[in-house]
Amino acid sequence: MFGDIARFLLNTVFTLFGAALLLRAWMLAVRMPPYNPVAHAVMQATNWLVLPLRHVFKTTRGIDWASLVAALIAAVVYVALMVFISGVDPLGLAPIVAVVALLTLVKWALNLLIWLTILMALLSWLNPHSPAMPILYQLTAPFLDPLRRVLPHFGGIDLSPILLFVIVQVLLMIVTRVAVSLTFFSI
């Protein structure tokens, strides 16, 4: 029972923190203004790890390498702790931990995309003039716009979030299956 509780808490804390680090890099990539409340909150939550890494990993061509490296570090620590809780020495499985950490990073990014898309779809129905809509649109547009060009228009109903959700769910299933096959626990 203690192991299940510890795994749940680690998963929750590291997934939220990893998602915040990935969101920070994503916001820079889509050139989101840093003065909006969401960007400010994400920056405040992640500065303690990202700012020291900025001395080593510079931002180039719109890619926030410090945030991505910080997310990878968080994923490695998360996977190592999960392996340790399972009763195995993480150092003995270092190559597997590294691969599973990369898969975990991909999983966090896919989950973040799902949640942002769901939030945008819900707000577009409930409160399309919400101040969060421009932020959500700016973050999800790189993924939804190509789908909007392919899908036919159905009387003003945008089906692109549903298609994106299906695609991302399939990718999540693949990533999770590969990670589970490499380890004896689920990430």
Automatic annotation (TrEMBL):
Keywords: Membrane, Transmembrane, Transmembrane helix. Coiled coil: none annotated. One of its GO terms (cellular component) is membrane. Signal peptide: none annotated. InterPro entries: CCB3/YggT. The keyword Membrane applies. The keyword Membrane applies. It comes from the Bacteria. The chain crosses the membrane at residues 65-85, 97-126, 162-185. Belongs to the YggT family. This is YggT family protein. It comes from Trinickia symbiotica.
